[in-house]
Amino acid sequence: MRDALDDIRKAGAELVVVGSGRPEHAREFRDAQRLRFPLLVDPELASFRAAGLRRGVLSTIGPRALGHALRALRSGARQGATRGDPWQLGGALVIRPPGEIAWRHVSREAGDHPPLDELLRALRRGGRGKNGLVRAT
């Protein structure tokens, strides 16, 4: 998503990443990756639960996750040291004030990233799907 940061901001939004580690982990990661957006931590996983994100061993190390890992390796990405909860999966939310979830992607396994084209379309249309319906997958 970092590569889409300019498009996200052009849509009037901000990219905010929430990790499950501790503040010192976030600082190390932010500095190593040279991030230009807010990076927050939630070691208690309350925000992950509130967002309805998945957590589990099988989702993290299952066969589809292995396929995602091989794709990442081929692209040159490397896994660093695991910080925080290794079984917590991620997702992406478009949140509109006063806190309405207007679009959501829940990762089904490790490496299941949100389709950026869908996320950007959701931002441009205010998060509403066709016929004004909110998409929650």
| Unreliable residue stretches | 129-137
Q: How far is it from the N-terminal to the C-terminal residue, by CA?
A: 19 Å
CATH architecture: 3-Layer(aba) Sandwich
CATH top level? Alpha Beta
Number of helices: 6
Shape: globular
Structure, described:
Helix content is 35%, strand content 15%. By secondary structure, it is an alpha/beta fold. It has a single domain, classed as Glutaredoxin (3-Layer(aba) Sandwich), CATH 3.40.30.10. The longest helix is centred in the middle third of the chain and has 12 residues, at 63-74. Residues 129-137 have low confidence and may be disordered.
Task: Offer a concise description of the structure.
By secondary structure, the protein is α/β, with parallel strands linked by helices. It has 6 helices and 5 strands.
Task: List the defining traits of the structure above.
two-stranded parallel ribbon; 137 residues; Glutaredoxin; disordered C terminus; 35% helix; three-stranded mixed sheet; alpha/beta
Question: How would you summarize the topology of this molecule?
Answer:
Blueprint: H1 5-10, E1 17-19, H2 23-33, E2 39-41, H3 46-50, H4 57-61, H5 63-74, E3 91-96, E4 100-106, H6 116-124, E5 135-136
